Amino acid sequence: MLLLYVLELFILSVCLIYCYFTKNFKYWKSRNIRGPLPLPFFGNVKDFVLRKSNAAVLNKQFYDKYPNEKVVGIFRMTSPTLIIRDLDVAKNVLIKDFEYFEDRGIEFSKEGLGANLFHADSEIWRPLRIFFSPLFTTAKLKNMVPLIVEKSDATINHFKKITELHKDQDVYSLVQKFTMSSILTCAFGLDIAIDSELLLQKMMKLDQLSFSRNIASDFDLLYPGVLKNLNASVFPKEVSKFFLDLVKDTIESRNGIPSNRKDFIDLILEAKNQGTILETKKSDDVGSTIKYVKLTNEVIAAQAFIFYVAGYETNATTMAYMMYELAMNPQIQEKLIAEVDEVLHRHNGKITYEIVGELTYMEKVLNETLRKYPVADIQRRAKANYNIPGTKITIEKGTTIFVPTLGISYDEKYYPNPAKFDPERFSPKNESNRHPCAFIPFGVGPRYCIGMMFARIQSRVFLMKFLSNFRVETSKNTQATIKFHPGRVLSSPKDGIYLNLIPRKVTIIL
Ligand code: HEM
Ligand SMILES: *[C@@H]1O[C@H](CO)[C@@H](O)[C@H](O)[C@H]1NC(C)=O
Ligand SMILES: *[C@@H]1O[C@H](CO)[C@@H](O)[C@H](O)[C@H]1NC(C)=O
Ligand SMILES: *[C@@H]1O[C@H](CO)[C@@H](O)[C@H](O)[C@H]1NC(C)=O
Ligand SMILES: CC(=O)N[C@H]1CO[C@H](CO)[C@@H](O)[C@@H]1O
Questions:
Q1: How confident is the model at residue 158 (pLDDT cuts 50, 70, 90)?
Q2: What b-and-e string marks burial along 266-294, b requiring 16 or more CB atoms within 10 Å of the CB?
Q3: C-alpha distances in angstroms, 508 versus 3, 337, 466, 471?
Q4: Angstrom distance (rounded) from CA 225 to CA 426
Q5: Which of 166, 198, 219, 306 is at a distance of 20 to 30 A from 264, taking alpha carbons?
Q6: How far is CA 318 from CA 29, 403, 427, in A?
Q7: For a pocket test of ligand 1, which of 365, 442, 447, 448 has the largest count of ligand atoms closer than 8 A to its C-beta?
């Protein structure tokens, strides 16, 4: 009797759990939006949840499966999510009707490091963005070029030392060291020797903690809003403390007044001393409220954190992928080396902001690299119900949307023979024939990557130095194809990128 009772209870609870995890699954069908069939619990993202696939790779599969749809409806576990396939719709959402989609929609406690520019939602995001944009103007970046040159030189010397022993190196981890030390110098005035293993290891550990995927964010896909309601952060205490201490120490060591380094901390100190308070204006359309953000050490630490993480990992990824493609396409490498030599020769080897702009072929090569290896898909969340112009589709308030840059990048419609690495896709003529949203590796619209110019300059300075000293060749460890790491938020290479670094015979002495 008791046994029967327990059995019934068991069956009942299985049913309840099943119902709970499938209760939403009519969502897209009832709205006439096509999409793949979801599984209980996992929705359509089983491989993502089980750490078998990177999010952008999955989104690309959904993108490819529905070539005739403007949008595709999927379920990330229980959360309905819309993938935007049509570039005109993407343009509306990201640019024209941006005010409906200001939020990124990554929900967790926005206290502490959560109050950073990348993760912040509109009420905090807007004042932060307005405040931090002037840090990235041309004039400010010009001042940083010598700092970047210095770090590039140190890195190249380090490369020379280690390649004497082994030519075959994981360029991904090498380049990571450069971008890390470069962003630390430019952001905090921290001068870290490129071979100082201790600190670098600490920084890399921080990165593992903060940009590897974790259970907490999965939980939020199952129970949307749970992290926010529990006031739970996705960043470990260790990480918050590290950045808060770093900011405090740096400010104290400058006695609270700007030094002459002209790095980010200086710019922030200038503003802080003027007593800046950040403020959001009221907008009736989407119902924002007035919100003040005080420029406290915590708020500064949150931005320092995001500049650090966004600044080094993305860059390392792009530069390492570019080296890989150069090794696979020797004729492109030779053409690029010729351009670098010519430009450096014409300026007696002195690298400035202006000469970086003369590297027109390198720009094409970098863009083609970003096409083949975009760092992440673009994410937004609807703040209010939104009717997609020219369709009967309404995106409901709270729905997360993705613009799948990886899917778009490999669409034959925009890029014939997409697997081929061909910088000529970015010739002026080809560029002008393409839809403006067909190439958005830095996002687009008011929420595009704030570090874009910094990134483009940093990578070009470094690659100029690198290619005037080395060329890259494939080695026996070089992978025939690159797999994205399934456990990372960004599209980092799964097993590193192994290449032989060959010192060039004629190096320009700089
Ligand atoms: C190759 C290098 C880089 C790539 C490909 C890249 C890519 C991106 C992308 C795709 C976004 C999302 C844009 C959107 O939602 O529309 C983004 C946002 C952002 N990036 Fe970058 N990024 C790079 C380098 C940097 C650097 C060097 C920094 C900092 C100094 C940085 C800081 C940020 C910040 C703060 C945001 C959030 C902006 C906001 O929400 O207002 N990024 N980046
Ligand atoms: C959330 O937690 C932080 C500390 O982690 C605390 O300072 C803050 O007051 C909490 N906020 C709420 C609304 O409980
Ligand atoms: C445009 O790109 C294609 C490759 O997609 C390339 O073959 C062609 O040469 C490019 N056209 C121009 C005008 O550069
Ligand atoms: C490369 O991409 C950037 C945007 O990411 C764009 O502004 C630039 O015009 C592109 N350059 C070329 C040569 O296509
Ligand atoms: C040098 C370094 O930290 N490399 C890391 C890059 O990211 C991959 C993937 O998480 C790690 O395995 C590497 O250790």
A1: confident
A2: bbbbebbeeeeebebeeeeebebeeeebe
A3: 84, 12, 11, 13
A4: 42
A5: 198
A6: 39, 20, 20
A7: 442
Q: Compute φ and ψ for 77, nearest 5 degrees.
A: 50, -115
State how far the Cα of 405 lies from the Cα of 277, in Å rounded to an integer: 36
Most ligand 3 atoms within 8 A of CB, residue of 372, 410, 430, 433 to mutate: 430
pTM above 0.85?
yes
Ligand 4: centre distance to CA 209 (Å): 33
Domains annotated for the chain, with CATH where assigned, are 2-503 (1.10.630.10)
Ligand 5 lined by 492 (C-beta under 6 Å) = yes
**What digits encode the pLDDT tens for the residues 180-217?**
777 777 777 666 665 566 666 766 676 666 655 566 66
State both tokens at 45. 């993202």
Amino acid at 77: M
Distance 231 CA to ligand 2 centre (A): 6
CA distance 49 to 215: 9
